[in-house]
Specification:
- Helices cover about 50% and strands about 5% of the residues.
- The two termini are about 30 Å apart.
- It is mostly helical.
- The protein contains 13 helices and 5 strands.
- The chain is globular.
- The strands form 2 sheets. A 3-stranded parallel beta sheet has the order 1-2-3. A two-stranded parallel ribbon has the order 4-5.
- The protein has 2 domains: about 210 residues, Rossmann fold; about 80 residues, Tyrosyl-Transfer RNA Synthetase (Orthogonal Bundle), CATH 1.10.240.
- β4, α8 and β5 form a beta-alpha-beta unit.
- Bound molecules: tryptophan.
- The site of tryptophan (TRP) has 13 residues, from β1 and α7.
Length: about 325
């Protein structure tokens, strides 16, 4: 049986943080043998939050270097830029006819962004953000989309558009699958201050942070505010560092929980332990990243390879779309 296909992507905002890793990238890497994979750099989507394009290319290279360093294998998982495959914009245009403005205005991710980023004058492209994302996914007929939890509303819109296209133009022989979102338990890893991890909030641990930086950052992380002294009893359920232990140090969870509650374990030691577990996890990634930092052409080659492969699939799908629409 043919493997199912994954299509996922991220906006190129530069170096990745642990939230990006745990929420999506780690899953992409885990699934890359089981599925056929395509991963895109959403360099048009990023314009919705920053119109300046001066850093997009550099940010793309940094992000893709992180993907590769973390273990994404470009042979199994072609990597490409959305902007280089014109079919994305073409399918986006067709899809924009198949969804109402009211439906897009109800998108909770949009509402959240309008609030968080203080957007006053929403641009047309921002409203259409999930329509472009639907084109990204359906152009490759993605069956599964491993993403962070905040993206699930966009997957739902993608399913609606796929259904709408199929009913309208291909009732007997559907062109598009209805893709499933896949989220992990840690789809939303909190940042060092307990809020969602985000570079704009300055509360991130980067995938490329060195040992000392991770230690320093952990030292400042918030813990149970009622645990003021080493021997005060703590409440792991409200402690951010405990959440990190759950992810990066699951084996010691029972001991940490017991010793925190009893007051035997102080926050300083607990944080040092946590930092060392995170550093252990990051060590091979840091090592591998050096190869790409020394020779950024390796990353550029990955993109141009991936773009060739993506183009083939994109053109096939568009031919099919045009035929079904009697525009072939
Ligand atoms: N909107 C996604 C994000 O911000 C990025 C993205 C663009 C994406 N196109 C995609 C994710 C297609 C999955 C599939 O994280």
């Amino acid at each position: 049986m043919a493997k199912k296909r994954i299509l996922s992507g991220m906006r190129p905002t530069g170096k990745l943080h642990l939230g990006n890793y745990v929420g999506a990238l780690e899953n992409w890497i885990k699934l890359q043998d089981e599925y056929e994979n395509y991963h895109l750099v959403a360099d048009y989507h990023v314009l919705t939050t920053d119109l300046s394009t001066d850093e997009i290319y550099q940010n793309t290279l940094e992000m893709v270097a992180d993907w590769l360093a973390a273990g994404l294998d470009p042979v199994k998982s072609p990597i490409f830029r959305q902007s280089q495959i014109k079919e994305h914009t073409e399918l986006f245009l067709i899809f924009s006819m198949l969804i109402t403005k009211a439906r897009l205005e109800r998108n909770p991710t949009l509402k959240e962004q309008v609030r968080d980023l203080n957007i006053e004058n929403l641009v047309y492209g921002h409203l259409g953000y999930p329509v472009l994302q639907a084109a990204d996914i359906l152009l490759y007929k993605g069956d599964a989309v491993p993403v962070g939890e905040d993206q699930l509303p966009h997957i739902e819109i993608t399913r609606e558009i796929a259904r709408r296209f199929n009913t309208q133009y291909a009732p007997n022989d559907p062109v598009f699958p209805e893709p499933e979102g896949m989220v992990t338990n840690f789809a939303r890893l909190p940042g060092l201050d307990g809020h969602r991890m985000s570079k704009s909030l300055g509360n991130v641990i980067l995938l490329s942070d060195d040992v000392e930086t991770v230690r320093q950052k952990l030292r400042k992380a918030v813990t149970d505010p009622q645990k003021l002294r080493k021997n005060d009893p703590g409440r792991p359920e409200v402690c951010l560092v405990f959440t990190y232990h759950k992810k990066f140090n699951p084996g010691e969870i029972p001991v940490i929980e017991k010793d925190c509650r009893s007051g035997a374990l102080g926050c300083v030691d607990c944080k040092l332990n946590c930092a060392s577990k995170i550093n252990q996890m990051l060590a091979p990634i840091l090592e591998k990243r050096k190869t790409y930092e020394k020779n950024i052409n390796l990353v550029k080659d990955v993109l141009s390879d991936g773009e060739k492969k993506a183009k083939v699939i994109a053109q096939q799908t568009m031919n099919e779309v045009h035929q079904k629409m009697k525009m072939g």
